[in-house]
Amino acid sequence: MGQSKNRKHAVTQPPKRPLTLRDVSEASGVSEMTVSRVLRNRGDVSQTTRERVLRAAKRLGYVPNKIAGALASQRVNLVGVIIPSLSNMVFPDVMTGISQVLEDTELQPVVGVTDYIPEKEEKVLYEMLSWRPSGVIIAGIEHSDASRAMLEASGIPVVEIMDIDGQPVDCAVGISHRRAGRMMGQAIAEAGFRRIGFMGTKMPLDHRARKRFEGLTGALAKAGIEVADQEFYSGGSALAKGREMTAAMLDRTPDLDFLYYSNDMIAAGGLLYLLDKGIDIPNQIGLAGFNGVELLNGLPRQLATMDACRFEIGRKAAELVSQRLAAPDASIDKVIELFPTLSYGETLRRT
Amino acid sequence: MGQSKNRKHAVTQPPKRPLTLRDVSEASGVSEMTVSRVLRNRGDVSQTTRERVLRAAKRLGYVPNKIAGALASQRVNLVGVIIPSLSNMVFPDVMTGISQVLEDTELQPVVGVTDYIPEKEEKVLYEMLSWRPSGVIIAGIEHSDASRAMLEASGIPVVEIMDIDGQPVDCAVGISHRRAGRMMGQAIAEAGFRRIGFMGTKMPLDHRARKRFEGLTGALAKAGIEVADQEFYSGGSALAKGREMTAAMLDRTPDLDFLYYSNDMIAAGGLLYLLDKGIDIPNQIGLAGFNGVELLNGLPRQLATMDACRFEIGRKAAELVSQRLAAPDASIDKVIELFPTLSYGETLRRT
DNA sequence: CTGAAAGCGCTAACAC
DNA sequence: GTGTTAGCGCTTTCAG
């Protein structure tokens, strides 16, 4: 950690009053109302006055006050986006999808982060709603009663994203994580693996990882296979955790022939570890992760994974909000299920 | 990409009018003003009425309207945070630092993303300032004239972060990327490397990477060394890019004995590539990256890197904003320089 | 095409 | 302790 070296200087703020419409009005000799019209490109204003106003506004450096505007117009062009984490590799993609769509509209995303903590979700949601956004996009389909109540009472479009295994407050876009787990389980069984180990995040925090695990065990059970060993982690560098957990698990249960990880990052750690050990992948041990993160493209072996449609989920969610705002009474799809694709890569099919 | 299966349902919104203070006032039989006081924990209110109000508010599900509150009180407890990217591995850390500090205050961070595009920075800044935030934290120390003008005119605390090689609008917290590059150059020269290759992002977009490069070449020049080859990329999976660029560069300039990468992710790609090729690291080729990302802990070799003090920068920036808000006239440090530490890892010192 | 009046929902400042 | 009055800076609405 760096220490700090300081250069002392007195810094005093010029006690400037922020400019108002009135200032522009006076500077341009045009009524406030007309100035407002020019600045919003609304109604008909003669070319002459328009230019006069624009020039005055620019010269003064006027920046409109959205607080006042929003209060007067009863419209706030913000969409609250509530997600568990930013350092996740998955939500930046969702955000990109959302931003891309909203860029063509008046709407702007504002993000809140919950760290997977329900209490924090409640708080963030409350703060968000108190700004009276036009819509909310929120990750996950399980929320506290209080959160659901707030969302319902808000009277604005609410899109729950990522997961569709449950009952949405309003509407939902995502994949079925249960189904995703099942697909992976089937693929593993079909490939002939029999001794499966599972590694993932501590479940209570992450409903989607839990559902994938449930889907996996269900599908394996049908093939007469039980998960032979499992381990959960929280916090820390995922890549390093993947290594550690893999080492520990193989130490404990040496006869495993397949390892399923709840995310690609720990899977990558596991892969690197096994490669170091000189293990033959996938003939000796097969591997799979989840998410389809771009990172994987640079790994020594193409890792089996499943794309979570993150980007598409972001786009669709933003489209939904924007559509519902444009046509509040239109009939829409309450639940939009996206279907992830399974990439076998080089670690799931024996050669 | 998943296609979508849809369940049609008519979803109509109950045409609810959002609740106001007046509703709570009527429901509790207490004046609006007193309700307001209770909800903000301000002034003296008797225990009896306080409870009555709270009960009514909770029963109705009242969520205060911050738009109106902000307009009336002329205070907006938001701090605008403007950064180039979220998918970067570096800014989430900065955000964490900021959030941690702001959590103990009334202030809340609101982020805007510029994608390293000056025009977008201007737009984001304009939008941000139109909400009249209490302060701004903005990445980088180079901004367009228009952006600087807006920041100066805003009359609020502005903290420029990450980089201190330049003249801040108001104050700055960061490291000297020039110095960081220089340190790395010295270390490389001292370790006895002589044929240096550089790989990084396209410079015009990333001032900090450019400054590190300048520092590097300067230090190497003093040791009589020139950068023997260099290559720049933009976009794509950084890990894969690191592989590709490394392959291409060694193909072109096979006698390189050291590779310096402008970020850890491409460095990691290069490392994996070289290891695949069976190259002896660091005796045949040495390596270094930049950032000190956690990811590195799981790599097969501990990569040489330099910590950019991201977390600490976030903390300090938030503290600065919060302090200046508390004591606007206090004399403060205009520039706070943090000092990155160089980790030699296992790729920079020959054995 | 332009302007005047009336609030949006809340809080500061002052009475009681 | 509690209530009253007047705005915050803008937009809506309606008149010219």
Automatic annotation (TrEMBL), chains A, B:
Q: Where is the composition biased (Basic residues)?
A: 1-10
Q: What domain of life is recorded for the organism?
A: Bacteria
Identify the CDD domains for this entry: HTH_LacI, PBP1_GntR
Q: Name one GO molecular function term.
A: transcription cis-regulatory region binding
A Pfam family of this chain: Peripla_BP_1
Transcription as a keyword? yes
Record-linked InterPro entries = HTH_LacI, Lambda_DNA-bd_dom_sf, Peripla_BP/Lac1_sug-bd_dom, Peripla_BP_I
Task: List the SUPFAM superfamilies hit by this protein, alphabetically.
Answer: lambda repressor-like DNA-binding domains, Periplasmic binding protein-like I
Region listing for Disordered, in residue ranges: 1-25
Keyword list, A-Z: DNA-binding, Transcription, Transcription regulation
Annotated HTH lacI-type domain residues:
19-73
Q: Does the keyword Transcription regulation apply?
A: yes
- Enumerate the PROSITE patterns for this protein: HTH_LACI_2
Protein name (database record): Transcriptional regulator, LacI family
